[in-house]
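Meet my pick.
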Amino acid sequence: MSTEHVDETVEELAAGNGAASRLEEEGDVAADYLEELLDIADIDGDIDIEVRSGRTYISVVSEEGDDSGLQALVGRDGEVLEALQELTRLSVLTATDSRSRLVLDISGYRRERSEELHRIAEDAVLRAKTSGKDIALAPMSAYERKIVHDAVAELGLVSESEGEGAGRHIVVSLSDA
C-alpha cells in the first residue's frame, strides 16, 4: 500500500468524521429547538437523535404512553409534522449556516406511514401486473414519493412522479417503454 493511498484514506476518514460531527450538531440544534417548543406548548415528550445514512433523524416520543399532546403536533395526514420539520430545518440553518435534510418523526407517525406506503406500493404493483395498465396513486409529499419509488423498484416495476405542487403523484407501470 502506498503512502499516497494511506493519506487519501486518512483524508476520506477525516472528511467522513467532519460530516458526522456536522450531522450531530444538526441533531443537537434541532433537539434544543424542539425541546423549547414542547416546553412552550406544555407537551411532554422525549427527544431521540440518530445519525444514519448521511442524515439526522429526530424522534419525539411520549414519556409515559400518553401521546395525545404529541398527536396534535402530527396533525391530519402529517401536515403539522411536515411544517414542524421545515421550521426545525430553518432553526438548524439559522444556527449553523448549513441546510439540513433532517427527518422529524413524532409518535412513530413516519414509521407507520412508511409501512402504509409499502402496502400501497405493493397493491399498485399487483394491480399494474394484473391489468397491464399504468396505475396512478394519490398525491403525496416528496418524502413519501421517495419511499414508494424505492418500494416499487424493489418489486421489479417502474414508477414516475407526475404533476406539480400539491397534485404531484406517482404512476406505477410495467416498464419504461
